[in-house]
Write a structure and sequence with these properties.
Elements (H helix, E strand, L loop, with lengths): L22 H19 L8 H8 L8 H11 L15 H26 L5 H10 L4 H12 L9 H13 L5 H13 L1 H8 L8 H12 L9 H6 L7 H8 L12 H26 L2 H15 L8 H15 L15 H23 L6 H10 L4 H12 L10 H15 L1 H8 L7 H6 L2 H6 L9 H13 L25 H30 L4 E13 L6 E2 L9 E2 L2 E10 L10 E8 L12 E4 L13 H6 L16 H7 L9 H12 L29
Antiparallel strand pairs: 1-4, 2-3, 4-5, 5-6
Helix pairs in contact: 1-3, 1-4, 1-5, 2-3, 2-4, 4-5, 4-7, 5-6, 7-8, 7-26, 13-15, 13-16, 13-17, 14-15, 14-16, 15-23, 16-17, 16-18, 16-20, 17-18, 18-19
Length: 701
């Protein structure tokens, strides 16, 4: 029986211009067009078994262009016993319904991969990028990376492998693990497949199909997949204008259509991740006794990352100055083992507000949007002077962007800060507790004398020198600390919460420190030394469940109706050996067991050193830390709970907490956008000035 051809007159829609419906509808129509093009490419008359193979596993999801992916996936699903007549009875109606089903599954797989691989990528934004990339997975990945100024996609990473399983689950595949394995194999052979398919632009011969099938069945001897080589094939598949825009990055031009508000919030979150890394570096450079005794307050209240130097050095300079200018009376000094996690998030958010305001002031009459300012900062890795240089060249339409040297950036920053009063603009926008005092200090001769001569970055010795100078000769005291949130008459009622908030913070700090210390001791024992002492805890989330999810329990009541099994903790620790004085503290990640019930006895702590990811890479993911809006640096090997199974459950809509990537994204925004008082503010409350009132509201995250 001859096979019926399937609508050879169907057009292949252009995703960049197809009208009618939203991006999702347009993409689905485009994908159906890709299936028609794939059928035209395959010898379905000679090998009718290819038609049911398309309906069985011919996803347009994969490492090549959508049509090539359908072709390769369909050929890979040819059964060993398929004869020439197999599939010949597939009629047009059945095929049409099957193609619509495959198109829906392919679209769900594409979106599932994108939202599971990239942090801060809501579904609608993922669809927007996929439409701009005309349904091409790696092209969409390329556009997101170009937008975020990163270049680190690796299909062999734990995050990417999890995203493959999420894609399979989102598509409703009955065996997600098998499909993910098949996709990895397809990625590993993509160059060979591309070479074979590019030999002819017309219909493949039966021998070419057989050759491709044998290639797909070959066992791979090398698990290493060169993703960089695969990404080199992407730009020619993009529309020319979009490919040029992605290659030449302009902060003033978006990549495709976008929801401005959502895109701004997403890129703002990406920038906060970069800024968080700067704070971790700054904490490592501060002496332990001063950090735990004094600077834990000033770093979260006034240690913003704008100033004359690079972001890390600016945090240090502003932190040390604020403590000297607004000293806390000795009788109110507190020795803390942990940096206030919610106050630190707020400091990072306020730093960005200051940076954005400074760039908009620099742009003058151009009316720079917040989104454009954030793009500049992402390209400049959060460095304000570099961002100004990038913006200036974009405004002047310079085609060849030149990065300034440290000395040029220093002079540029100095001139612009004076001319435009940028430090005042940034301090006001960032709600700095001394918006008048900080600009005066940063522009003073004394501050200039403290700056390094050879670079824009403080060394450890430079930090000690600044501390010594400001401790020995403090600036004229500018008064009592003024970092209190605005007080209102209604706040009088909240003063009763003060003892509870204080008690809660001390309990959390004691618990996290004890857990981190135990995990660190186990790490030292397993690795045969050296001994470490904890420098400071710089991030903690006590709400992490095992792979079965949280349990309904009263153990955490009234904080939560759920029992969470683990805590994720970041801390800095220094070796106790004689050479420790010349070494900076090491950043550690620990996953610690929360409870000592009978059901928890088999659980184990884990602990390992981690590094702050380079600013041009995508961070590994954790469902529970993102759900709580807490920034934790996790190990890239995926050896922790929350890195895989929870995302896979969410993709299949079977998670107990949420089945929406938007809820994770929005939870993070609630934390990072909050301008309310936080738990740690109670430690810095000025009793002498306002003993009868408390902060207007308090959030523990």
């Amino acid at each position: 029986m001859a096979c019926k051809r399937v609508r050879p007159d169907w057009p292949v829609p252009d995703a960049s211009s197809a009208g009618g419906g939203g991006d999702k509808s347009v993409l689905r129509r485009c994908i159906i067009g890709f299936y028609n093009a794939a059928i035209e490419r395959l010898p379905v008359e000679e090998k009718p078994a290819l038609l049911p193979a398309i309906l069985d596993g011919g996803f347009c999801f994969g490492p090549m262009d959508p049509v090539s992916n359908i072709v390769a996936n369909a050929i890979g699903h040819l059964g060993t016993g398929d004869g020439e007549d197999s599939g010949a009875d597939v009629d047009e109606v059945e095929m049409w319904q099957g193609l619509k089903t495959m198109a829906r599954g392919s679209l769900k797989a594409l979106v599932g991969f994108m939202t599971s691989y990239f942090r801060y990528l809501p579904t609608l934004e993922a669809i927007n990028f996929l439409r701009a990339a005309e349904g091409d997975l790696l092209a969409a990945v390329h556009l997101v990376e170009a937008e975020r100024c990163i270049c680190a996609f690796d299909i062999g990473s734990c995050t990417a492998k999890t995203a493959l399983r999420c894609a399979a689950g989102a598509a409703g595949h009955p065996e997600p693990d098998r499909l993910a394995t098949e996709m990895l194999s397809l990625f590993s052979k993509a160059h060979k497949i591309h070479h074979l398919l590019s030999r002819t632009t017309g219909r493949l011969t039966c021998s070419a199909v057989d050759h491709l099938r044998h290639l797909l069945l070959e066992e791979e001897t090398n698990d290493q997949i060169c993703t960089q080589r695969l990404m080199l094939l992407v730009p020619p598949r993009l529309p020319p204008e979009l490919a040029a825009a992605a290659a030449a990055f302009s902060p003033l031009a978006p990549l495709g259509r976008e929801n401005t508000r959502t895109c701004t919030k997403a890129l703002q979150s990406v920038l906060i991740d970069k800024i968080h890394g700067f704070y971790l570096e700054a904490l490592a450079l501060l002496p332990q006794h001063l950090l735990r005794g004094r600077y834990h307050r000033s770093v979260v209240m006034a240690g913003h990352c704008y100033g004359p130097l690079d972001p890390v050095s600016n945090i240090l300079l502003n932190t040390i100055w604020y403590d000297a200018a607004f000293p806390v009376p000795k009788e109110l000094h507190l020795d803390l083992d942990m940096i206030g996690r919610w106050a630190l998030i707020r400091a990072e958010r306020r730093s960005i507000a200051g940076l954005v305001a400074g760039l908009r002031a620099f742009a003058g009459n151009y009316n720079l949007s917040e989104l454009q300012a954030i793009r500049c900062l992402l390209y400049a890795n959060g460095d304000f002077a570099t961002a100004m240089s990038v913006l200036q060249q974009a405004l002047l339409r310079n085609q060849e962007r030149r990065m300034l040297s440290d000395s040029e950036l220093f002079r540029f920053m100095d001139v612009m800060a004076k001319r435009l009063q940028l430090y005042s603009v940034m301090a006001i926008a960032a709600q700095h507790p001394s918006a008048d005092g900080l600009p005066d200090f940063l522009m003073s001769e004394r501050a200039r004398a403290m700056l390094p001569r050879e670079s824009r970055r403080f060394s450890r010795e430079d930090v000690h020198s600044v501390i010594k100078s400001l401790l020995q000769e403090p600036p004229p005291s500018l008064g009592m600390p003024s970092e209190l949130v605005r007080l209102t008459l209604a706040a009088e009622r909240t003063i009763d919460l003060f003892p509870d908030a204080t008690k809660c913070f001390w309990a959390d700090m004691s618990s996290f420190h004890r857990k981190a210390k135990t995990a660190l001791e186990s790490y030292v024992l397993e690795n045969g030394g050296p001994e470490y002492v904890i420098h400071v805890i710089c991030g903690a989330n006590g709400s992490v469940a095992d792979r079965n999810g949280p349990e309904l329990s009263r153990i955490n009541w009234p904080r939560s109706p759920n029992k969470f099994h683990y805590s994720h903790i970041n801390f800095l620790a220094s070796p106790t050996s004689s050479c420790a004085a010349v070494l900076l503290p090491t950043l550690f990640f620990a996953e610690c067991v929360n409870h000592d019930e009978e059901s928890d006895r088999a659980r184990n702590n884990t602990c390992c050193p981690v590094v702050v990811p380079p600013t041009n890479t995508e961070k590994v993911r954790c469902f529970y830390c993102e759900y709580k809006g807490i920034n934790i640096i996790h190990p890239p090997d995926g050896n922790y709970h929350g890195c895989d199974t929870d995302f896979e459950k969410m993709a299949r809509r079977k998670h107990i907490l949420t089945n929406s990537i938007e809820s994770i994204f929005n939870n993070g925004l609630l934390v990072t956008d909050s301008r309310d008082a936080v738990q740690e503010d109670f430690f810095y409350f000025d009793h002498a000035r306002d003993h009868a009132r408390g902060p207007s509201s308090c959030s523990d995250g």
